[in-house]
Design the sequence.
């Protein structure tokens, strides 16, 4: 038999080999490139660590003037990622900032405080805590000065000015403006857009004041939603005007006239008694140095000089929960995306806390708009469990918000503290789906369904709920709402009738929450520490530690965070480059949860 001859010439087989070789070569090149990238990242990390080890921290002079730039970022959770390794000095968390100011008030070496602010990212509750800290600093007999090169950018400088009024003297740069234009609340309504593209939102809530999905289901405010936002904004605005008028010793009516005329020039602000003088920053600094005989020290350097905790003394654990509540692992995002509080991570952190035999009490610093009800319940149980099994008292310190799921977590605490402007409550639940049948019709797409089970496909986006499915969904919402309100009533000692008046999705400020019994007292971190010491049996004069959580990550964990978070970083950059505020995008993204605040923006 003759050998079979291939119809393809030998050169074809050679080309196949060449193609395979090229693919192999490219794969090797990509592999080397990946290893090279990782090597560069590791090199930067090592260099950053070496820089941190050899970085010189300025010592506190015998006569010091503490300088704080309130325009810097002071997040609730300490920066602990790969990029923080490259910094010569660590950035401060809000807790670190507050601690530094409070320690400086008692430090005989510190003679004065100079703050600067123009456009700050601090929240209102944080500002109220700082105002109290500055007041304590001044009460120690030391002067505090605030310099501004303009409050806000044309407008939205009300919160910055609110902070400034805690200081002895406010100095503004000549020719700048005070944008104390008041506060505004903005809510996005996208139902009109959804109608245009054929998407129907089908969502239900418990109850009429749980308005998170109104942005999807309506084209404008419902009467209940408008009433809630008006009441909320009015209460916050009254707090600010009351505090500002008292601090500046001016009539509230005169202050309102100034607000309604803003933005004001520095000269107009001076004439209205809102500031004390106009001058340039170098002139103010020179005067403070002359008056005190001191040298300037940045708050970061000062903070690094504060001694760490002692060994084998009573300890208060300070755990920060910042972000949207979800199941699984926590995901901090320093690139303006919203951080996630993972229920599994929190449970592990609580286990770390109880492993420390010196811990006498726990402070939970909660700054969360809520999120998943199931995940919130997991965290609530984990906190309740350590209280029961280890007899550890838990004090809750609410930040800018501890609402919906965030408030549910707070219920596990023995004592709840909030700032007057903290947003809390929002006791309710919601859920549903986006129905795409109208969109499919526009696209001439026809979905067919075969079911095995009466409620199979209940959350399918391709059709509306049937009457039977709607009844099942309503029953689920009723069960969750009943659980939420029952746990709140039990924890807070509130009757069912009063509970109904306070719940139904209503959002309260911390001031109103204390008035109605949803929280115990007004106060911030310092008040929480004092209460934790009291409940933990630590006497006023006894030495004690405060141990901060989350603990620092390992290098491997930081590398994994960067590799997993890369796409998020690029998305946020694109969003910001397009001119959108990433916080607004995050606000819309929250609509995927069942126990979360309504999407609104406070402009101040």
Sequence:
């Amino acid at each position: 038999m003759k050998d079979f001859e291939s119809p393809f010439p030998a050169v074809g087989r050679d080309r196949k080999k060449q193609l395979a070789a090229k693919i192999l070569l490219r794969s090797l090149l990509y592999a080397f490139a990946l290893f090279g990238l990782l090597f560069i990242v590791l090199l930067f990390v090592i260099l950053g660590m070496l820089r941190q080890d050899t970085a010189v921290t300025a010592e506190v002079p015998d006569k010091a003037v503490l300088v704080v730039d309130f325009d810097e970022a002071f997040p609730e959770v300490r920066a602990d990622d790969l990029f923080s390794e490259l910094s010569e000095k660590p950035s401060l968390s809000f807790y670190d900032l507050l601690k530094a100011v409070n320690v400086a008030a008692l430090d005989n070496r510190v003679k004065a405080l100079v703050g600067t602010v123009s456009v700050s990212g601090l929240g209102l509750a944080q500002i109220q805590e700082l105002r109290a800290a500055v007041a304590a600093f001044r009460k120690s007999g030391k002067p505090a000065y605030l310099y501004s090169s303009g409050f806000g950018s044309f407008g939205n400088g009300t919160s910055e000015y609110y902070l400034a009024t805690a200081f002895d003297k406010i100095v503004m740069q000549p020719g700048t403006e005070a944008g104390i234009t008041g506060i505004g609340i903005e809510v996005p309504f996208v139902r009109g857009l959804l109608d245009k593209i054929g998407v129907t939102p089908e969502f239900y809530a418990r109850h009429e004041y749980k308005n998170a999905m109104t942005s999807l289901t309506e084209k404008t405010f419902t009467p209940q939603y408008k009433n809630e936002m008006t009441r909320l904004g009015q209460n916050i605005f009254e707090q600010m005007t009351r505090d500002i008028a008292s601090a500046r010793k001016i009539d509230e009516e005169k202050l309102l006239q100034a607000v309604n005329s803003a933005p004001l020039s520095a000269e107009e602000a001076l004439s209205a008694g809102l500031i004390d003088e106009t001058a340039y920053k170098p002139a103010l600094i020179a005067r403070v140095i002359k008056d005190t005989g001191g040298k300037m020290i940045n708050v970061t350097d000062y903070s690094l000089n504060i001694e760490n905790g002692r060994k084998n003394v009573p300890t208060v654990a300070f755990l920060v929960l910042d972000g949207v509540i979800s199941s699984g692992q926590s995901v901090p995002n320093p690139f303006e995306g919203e951080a996630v509080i993972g229920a599994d991570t929190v449970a592990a952190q609580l286990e770390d806390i109880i492993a420390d035999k010196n811990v006498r009490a726990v402070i939970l610093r909660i700054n969360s708009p809520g999120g998943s009800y199931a995940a919130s319940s997991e965290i609530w149980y984990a906190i309740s469990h350590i209280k029961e099994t280890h007899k550890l008292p838990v004090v809750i310190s609410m930040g800018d918000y501890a609402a919906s799921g965030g408030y549910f977590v707070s219920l596990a605490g023995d004592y709840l503290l909030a700032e007057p402007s903290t947003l809390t409550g929002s006791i309710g639940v919601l859920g549903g789906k986006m129905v795409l049948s109208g969109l499919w019709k526009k696209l001439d797409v026809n979905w067919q369904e075969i079911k095995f089970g009466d409620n199979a496909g209940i959350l399918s986006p391709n059709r509306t709920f049937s009457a039977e499915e709607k009844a099942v969904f309503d029953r689920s919402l009723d069960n969750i709402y009943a659980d939420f309100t029952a746990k709140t009533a039990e924890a807070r000692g509130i009757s069912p009738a009063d509970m109904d008046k306070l719940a139904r999705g209503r959002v309260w400020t911390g001031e109103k929450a204390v008035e109605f019994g949803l929280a115990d007292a007004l106060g911030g971190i310092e008040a929480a520490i004092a209460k934790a010491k009291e409940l933990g049996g630590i006497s006023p004069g006894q030495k004690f530690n405060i141990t901060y959580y989350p603990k620092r990550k390992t290098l491997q964990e930081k590398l994994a965070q960067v590799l997993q978070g890369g796409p998020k970083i690029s998305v946020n950059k694109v969003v910001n480059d397009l001119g959108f505020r990433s916080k607004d995008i995050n606000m819309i993204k929250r609509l995927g949860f069942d126990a979360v605040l309504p999407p609104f923006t406070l402009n101040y």
